[in-house]
């Protein structure tokens, strides 16, 4: 075994509890920021409660340990059945959110890979690149939004001379998908998402930076930024669940010497995800005392199964067991042999 890795793991047992608690709070803050991002993107089309969106994101964070995108399935079912958001509008919402997150993350990641240090060129690339990409995305979305944008799309579809394309563009389904342009084309929405994601990335980088200090591993601020973005990307893209995949992928990208740091962050995430998942589930009425539900929008065809699912209590083990097992595994007193 690597003596440096063994030494790093041995130092973990000496970390004061309040420092670990601080990292858990930072991870919980990133989950709250993510919920605020989702709410901000949908705001031009539908106004949702901020607390509800944070609660949904908390449950999704706990479900992210399960395969087959259980967290995404829960998010879609919840907003469809509880908030009455049409499925295609949810699809447009997710697409607009993913695009704006990419706009906010790409410049600092590229600058970190290019410069390797936070010098003047790093800041110029990050700030100017983010502003340029945000302006481009917002401008393109505004160009295609509204009646004028829809008319432009109709002319393009008619130019293809494919009847199926023309019928689809004129359908109600396409109008719901077209709502993505209203979301991404709102300058206020873009500005809020960029600000929230910038704070989120700073917190993610700080989490890796201080975790490296706890493990006695040398890690620069630039590496911390790259680590936070890499960890986020792998966690969001892994179809088999975040546990294991993000640790292996992050270790491959960042180097095996940072494995103790990655495992500390993973354990901290497990504690934050479990806590936020339980609080979110209680807020949404999935656990705890049942309260009278507010009046719901009229259900449309095809929602019978979703409606029945939403009225059942989610088994506690569904979102508690994976974080508990991950936390026990990482924080055990075993040291690599």
Helicity range of the residues?
over 70%
The ordered H/E elements are HHHHHHHHHHHHHHH
User: Quaternary status of these chains?
Assistant: single chain
Gross geometry: globular
User: Structural class of the helices, strands and pairings?
Assistant: mainly alpha
N-to-C CA distance: 6 Å
Instruction: Tally the helices.
Output: 15
- How confident overall, as mean pLDDT? 80
β-strand amount: under 5%
Brief sketch in words of this structure:
75% of the residues lie in helices and 0% in strands.
Explain what you see:
The protein contains 15 helices and no strands. By secondary structure, it is mainly alpha-helical. Helix content is 75%, strand content 0%.
Task: Lay out the secondary structure.
Blueprint: H1 3-12, H2 17-42, H3 50-63, H4 70-81, H5 87-115, H6 120-144, H7 146-159, H8 163-169, H9 172-184, H10 187-215, H11 221-237, H12 245-254, H13 259-283, H14 304-311, H15 316-330
Helix pairs in contact: 2-3, 2-5, 2-10, 2-13, 3-4, 3-13, 4-14, 5-6, 5-9, 5-10, 5-11, 6-9, 6-10, 7-8, 10-11, 10-13, 11-12, 13-15
């Amino acid at each position: 075994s690597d003596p440096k890795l063994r030494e790093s793991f041995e130092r973990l047992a000496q970390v004061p509890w309040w420092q670990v608690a601080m990292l858990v709070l930072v991870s919980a803050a990133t989950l709250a920021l993510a919920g605020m991002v989702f709410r901000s993107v949908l705001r031009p089309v539908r106004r949702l409660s901020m607390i509800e969106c944070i609660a949904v994101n908390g449950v999704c964070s706990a479900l992210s340990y399960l395969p087959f995108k259980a967290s995404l399935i829960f998010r879609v079912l919840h907003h469809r059945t509880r908030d009455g958001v049409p499925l295609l509008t949810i699809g447009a919402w997710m697409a607009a959110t993913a695009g704006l997150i990419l706009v906010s993350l790409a410049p600092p990641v590229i600058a970190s890979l290019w410069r390797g240090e936070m010098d003047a060129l790093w800041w110029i690339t990050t700030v100017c690149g983010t502003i340029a990409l945000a302006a481009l995305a917002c401008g393109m979305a505004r160009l295609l939004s509204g009646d004028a944008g829809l008319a432009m799309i109709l002319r393009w579809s008619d130019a293809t001379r494919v009847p199926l394309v023309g019928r689809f563009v004129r359908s109600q389904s396409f109008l719901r998908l077209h709502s993505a342009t209203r979301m991404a084309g709102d300058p206020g929405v873009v500005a809020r998402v960029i600000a929230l994601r910038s704070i989120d990335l700073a917190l993610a980088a700080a989490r890796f930076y201080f975790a490296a200090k706890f493990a006695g591993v040398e890690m620069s601020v630039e590496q911390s930024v790259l680590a936070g973005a890499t960890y986020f990307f792998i966690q969001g893209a892994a179809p088999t669940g975040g546990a294991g995949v993000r640790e292996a992928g992050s270790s491959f990208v960042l180097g095996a010497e940072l494995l103790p740091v990655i495992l500390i962050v993973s354990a901290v995430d497990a504690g934050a995800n479990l806590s936020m998942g339980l609080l979110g589930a209680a807020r949404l009425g999935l656990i705890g005392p049942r309260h009278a539900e507010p009046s719901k929008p009229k259900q449309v065809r095809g929602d019978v199964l979703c409606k029945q699912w939403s009225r059942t209590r989610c088994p506690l083990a569904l979102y508690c067991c994976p974080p508990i097992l991950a936390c026990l595994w990482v924080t055990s007193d075993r040291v690599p042999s």
